[in-house]
Specification:
Layout (H helix, E strand, L loop, with lengths): L2 E5 L2 E4 L4 E8 L3 E9 L6 E7 L5 E3 L7 E6 L4 E6 L8 E9 L7 E2 L3 E6 L1
Parallel strand pairs: 2-11
Antiparallel strand pairs: 1-3, 3-8, 4-5, 4-9, 5-6, 7-8, 9-10, 9-11
Length: 117
């Protein structure tokens, strides 16, 4: 069974750091991305990484503060979030595109990140 399992969310003060993990099992991946959704807002893209070359791309709102990486041996992607701001508060979800798909076909359950001021 194919799954994405997320971990690492929590409560942190503004200026602090958190690291999210997203572990995939059961399928060869092409890329993985993180999205977030704040209360009353639409889901927005955060960051993206390709599995073969580690090419990374970020939303302007997190560029320079967040870093996406991946460990192929563990089939896991990470989102290191530094200099967190209250506006980063959201449910963060990882999504993956498997080798047989043309879009994101795997989604995690989401993890809450809360940044207090």
């Amino acid at each position: 069974q194919v799954r994405l399992v997320e971990s690492g969310g929590g409560l942190v003060q503004a200026g602090g750091s958190l690291r999210l993990s997203c572990a995939a099992s059961g399928r060869t991946l092409v890329s993985m991305a993180w999205f977030r959704q704040a209360p009353g807002k639409e889901r927005e893209f955060v960051a993206y990484i390709t599995w073969s070359t580690s090419f990374a791309y970020y939303a302007d709102s997190v560029k320079g503060r967040f870093t996406i990486s991946r460990d192929n041996t563990k089939n896991t992607a990470y989102l290191q979030m530094d200099s967190l701001r209250p506006e980063d508060t959201a449910i963060y979800s990882c999504a993956a595109r498997s080798i047989t798909a043309t879009t994101y076909d795997l989604w995690g359950q989401g993890t809450q990140v809360t940044v207090s001021s």
